[in-house]
Specification:
CATH architecture: 3-Layer(aba) Sandwich
Shape: globular
Number of helices: 5
CATH class: Alpha Beta
Strand order of the largest sheet: 2-1-3-4-5
Order of helices and strands: HEHEHEEHEH
Strand content: 15-25%
CATH topology: Rossmann fold
Radius of gyration: 19 Å
Number of domains: 1
CATH superfamily: Response regulator
Oligomer: single chain
């Protein structure tokens, strides 16, 4: 009986191991992205404090630490209130009613579960990701017009977001 249980539980154990490996790989990728961001892309804002973005939410189900770091950078501006980092579609759907700017950090693992524009038509939405076919496809699915390359310096991100809010 014990042998039968071991044979039957092997696929489940293999699945658990693969899921654990996947989580570890995602965590490593997130750590690498934060390190790269802080080492090469993060530029001081100097005396600039005039970036008014309103209420900002960052969404990421893969690069959550990077999303939090970008949120910290944006929160230092007057007129910008970073509400937080959302990591799943239920939270995203609940929180987007009072949001002026939604930033999706990296591509989404489960893209089809997210719906943003249905709730708040005035909200600007930006993909902060490395441009790729996956990001372009997700932008089409989610009806997001703006994609900003996350490998660009933060000063360019600030200018890009300022331009978006200017034409709101």
């Amino acid at each position: 009986m014990k042998k039968l249980f071991e044979v039957l539980s092997k696929p489940f154990n293999d699945y658990k191991e693969r899921q654990q490996q996947k989580l570890e790989e995602m965590k490593k990728r997130d750590e690498d992205a934060v390190a790269f961001f802080e080492s090469y892309l993060l530029k001081p804002i100097g005396d600039r404090t005039d970036l008014t973005l309103g209420n900002v939410v960052l969404v990421s189900d893969r690069l959550t630490r990077l999303a939090a770091r970008v949120g910290e950078c944006l929160n230092q501006f007057d007129g910008t209130n970073v509400i937080g980092v959302v990591t799943n579609q239920r939270m995203a759907y609940k929180i987007t009613e009072s949001v002026d700017l939604l930033i999706i950090v990296g591509y989404l693992e489960y893209c089809r579960n997210y719906y943003f524009k249905n709730q708040n038509e005035d909200m600007q939405t930006v993909f902060f990701a490395t441009p790729s076919r996956v990001v372009k496809d997700q932008a089409d699915i989610l009806r997001i017009e703006h994609i900003f390359d996350r490998m660009s310096p933060t000063t360019e991100l600030y200018n890009y977001l300022e331009m978006l809010t200017y034409f709101r």
